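Batch manifest line 190
LIGAND: fe (iii) ion
JOB: complex structure
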Amino acid sequence: MKDKIQIITSLRSRLLEDRFFHSLNVADMAKELALIYGADPEQAYLAGLVHDCTKNTPAQVQLQMMEQGGMVLTDLERQSPKLWHAMSGSLFIQSEYGIEDAAVISAVRYHTTGKAAMSLLEKIIYIADYTSAERDYPGVEQMRHWAHTDLDKAVFEGAAFTVKKLQKAGLPVHPDTLAARDYYGLQGKR
Ligand code: DGI
Ligand code: FE
Ligand code: FE
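JOB STATUS: finished
ARTIFACT:
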C-alpha cells in the first residue's frame, strides 16, 4: 500500500485545488468523528482522504474504470454521472493505492448515496463529507451538532436534505439514497 504522503501527493495532482483541500478537511473531520464514536481514527482519516479521488476524472475514464472493474451500472446510475466517482473511486484506491481494507473500500463506495444499515465507518465518511471545515451551506452548524452528538440522526438529516434537493432539481434519486433516509428515519423512532 502507498503511504499517507504518497497518497496525498497523488491527490494533489489528481484533484482541483478546492477538491484537494476538501479531501484533507473530510479526513480531519472523519478522524474527529472516529475518536468520538470509537472507530479507528487512522482508518477514518485514510477513507476521508481518498473518498473523492476520482471526482475530477473525466467521465469516459471513470466509465472505463467501472467496466474494467466489472461494475454493472443500473439505468439510473448510468444517467447520474455525479454518482460515478464513488464507484470508480472505490476501484481506484485498490488498483492505484493498494488499499485492501474492505471497510475503507465500502465507505468510499457508499459515500455519495449512503444506504440502509451502514457500518460505523460508512456513516462517519458520509457525515464527514457533509460537515467538513469548508462546508458553509445554511444549516451546516446544526448538522455539525448532530454529527458530534447523534450520528444516526445526522445521517437521516443528510439523506433527507439530499432527497429534497434532488427532487427540487428534478434529478433521479438513487434507491440507496432513499433507503438511507428511510432506514435512519425509522432508527430515530425506536
Ligand atoms: O463529492 P462531493 O461533492 O463532496 O459530495 P457527494 O459525493 O455527496 O456528491 C454530491 C453530489 O451527488 C450532488 O451533486 C448530488 C449528487 N447525488 C447524491 N445522491 C444522489 C445524487 N445524484 C443523483 N442523481 N441521485 C442520488 O441519489
Ligand atoms: Fe463525493
Ligand atoms: Fe466529498
